[in-house]
Amino acid sequence: MRLLLGLMWLLHWLPLPILGRLGAIVGSLLFFTVRSRRHITLTNLRLCMPELTEQQRRHIALKHFQGYARAVLERSLLWWGSEARLRRLITVEPCVPLQDIQAGPTILLCPHFVCLDVAGVAVLLESPLCSIYTRQKNKVFDGALRKGRSRFRPIKLFSREEGVKPVLRAMREKLPFFMLPDMDFGAKDAEFVPFFGTPAATLTSPARIAASTGAKVIPVIATFLPNYRGWKVTFYPAWENYPGDDIFAATRKMNVFIEDRIRETPDEYFWTHKRFKTRPPGTESVYRNISKPTARPNQASL
After folding, report:
1. Nearest Cα to Cα of residue 41 among 295, 299, 280, 270
2. Residue 294 DSSP SS3
3. Beta-strand relationship, 198-203 and 216-224
């Protein structure tokens, strides 16, 4: 792992266009060799975008692998690149909402697009924050991850096992909560809410935390700029009257927002994740026969 981290450190000296193209090459190799993740990606795309042809979905899947590998290599810039260089490469629209953050509890809702780490850096260049992350099994990599994410401003990273109480304490200290809301962590604290029409175990915690703290919910999405020129981080207006009285409806609103952003840059969403792993009772897995390629696109079952 130390050797891998040393290689990543060396990569951060490369110009971004070279680093990005190298990532695209690595992603193409992974698409053709890692059959299990390719199967997951294509299954997700068949469920979420049945209106597309199989050829169109495979093109999105290939671009996704390229973008994901590119984002991993470009993380070297986020961890070791100078502040001046990152400010040149990150375009923020319209701006980091510092007034909202300073005015009271704030949830920065960041769905799993491949460039999500860039959104975190964009905030940390201007403000400390808190977040929940998955503790890495390798202690060397876990330390590098925590150090890389906290080098510009203080960041309180809590492991998922600690639950939400440390987050609530940090929010009372006026730290914005950088929240990743859209992965399948099982049925606990989740509802089966439609995601592109398919029931998906969706965390209700964004709505519940907003209700209990009175926090503003401000979505943020990070995407690639064209021609390897860097990244764009977009902060959207705070959701009005959120969550209201209906937690399910509020969670559905979140999923609809994510769906709309995915349609804008479909290859940059994190399709290799088993978004539909947890199924409603009595419903079979959509990822069965994961080691075998699906014969026809209409064979993916709900």
Report:
1. 270
2. coil
3. unpaired
For the chain, which residues score pLDDT lower than 50? 290-302
Q: For residues 21 and 119, what is the distance between their CA atoms, to the nearest angstrom?
A: 21
Q: For residue 281, give every residue at least 6 positions away whose Cβ sits within 8 Å of its Cβ, in sequence order, or none.
A: none
Domain ranges of the chain: 2-281
Q: How far apart are CA 10 and CA 16, in angstroms?
A: 13
Gap between the Cα atoms of 254 and 166, Å rounded: 23
Cα angle value 232/78/108 (rounded, 5°) = 55
* 3-class state of residue 213 by DSSP: helix
DSSP class of residue 64 equals: H
As given in the structure block, the two tokens for residue 275 are 């978004």
- Looking up tokens 């975008």 gives 49
pLDDT digits (tens, 9 = 90+) for 105-123: 999 999 999 999 999 999 9
Q: Residue 146: is it exposed, middle or buried by C-beta count within 10 angstroms (0-12/13-18/19+)?
A: middle
